[in-house]
Amino acid sequence: MQTDTAKHVVETLLQTGNSNEIAEISGKLDQLIRLADETLHMQKVAALEPGNVLRFHTGLHSIALSLPDAQDDYIQRVILRRRAFYEAKLLSLIQTTGVIGPEVTVCDIGANIGNHSIFFGKVLQAKRVLAFEPLPHCYETLCRNLDLNGLSNALAYNCMVGAKSGRGDIARFNPRNLGSTVFVAAKNGPIPMVALDDLMDAEEMQGLGFIKVDVEGMQMDVLNGAKKLIKTFRPVMWIEILGKDKSAAATMKLMESLGYMATPIGGTNHLFTPKP
Hints:
Elements: H1 2-16, H2 19-46, E1 53-58, E2 61-66, H3 74-82, H4 88-97, E3 105-109, H5 115-123, E4 128-132, H6 136-148, E5 154-157, E6 160-161, E7 166-172, E8 182-185, E9 191-194, E10 208-213, H7 219-224, H8 227-233, E11 236-240, H9 245-257, E12 260-266, E13 269-274
Parallel strand pairs: 3-4, 3-10, 4-5, 6-9, 10-11
Antiparallel strand pairs: 1-2, 7-8, 7-9, 11-13, 12-13
Helix pairs in contact: 1-2
């Protein structure tokens, strides 16, 4: 209603031809709308259950997500505003493919607070979900959210995934968008890093059929450290491809060399399926 009113006022002013007055009032209206939106958002934050828990339904499934940073963090704000999973349309698309089910193990690389992991495990009923999240604060929330949703078959790892097992560190951090944190390999860094190929023989990996990679431009490192695993299990892969043009082209070239074909599924996201 506020947006409609603002539009009506601007349209009326346009008819007067006073451009300076239009610009001034339009700017003030924008400020008022942003203030009203922020006030409404803070009311929603204050209404969260103890532990900053939001509950909502997806189909027949009751979902609970702890959102301790909903006041500022972009992803948690979206979840709270919509009372739904973040990237719900993309998750629904994955659901329609039927690639994840009770016999499939899923790797969620860049799991953040568990939004996707919970969809894979609770809604799609994956056999097992292996969630990798290097940022300690997000990892704590991830573990809480897995517990809140009763996902005893999900395992969380507080580590990076890279080209080689070793150590890493934070290269860029944004408190208003925790999911955009960028990590880099660092010999003496404080964060453990693992190459998926080093986990290939682990019992937890058996039945691997789907990998989601959302690592803020580090997808080539993840893929280079998982070539053997990919060739062995041939999982369907959801990869967010960020980085400069050369990085995107290199990702496509590598996946093609591994015998995959790409399908854009929205924005920078691509679904890679093994060629027949």
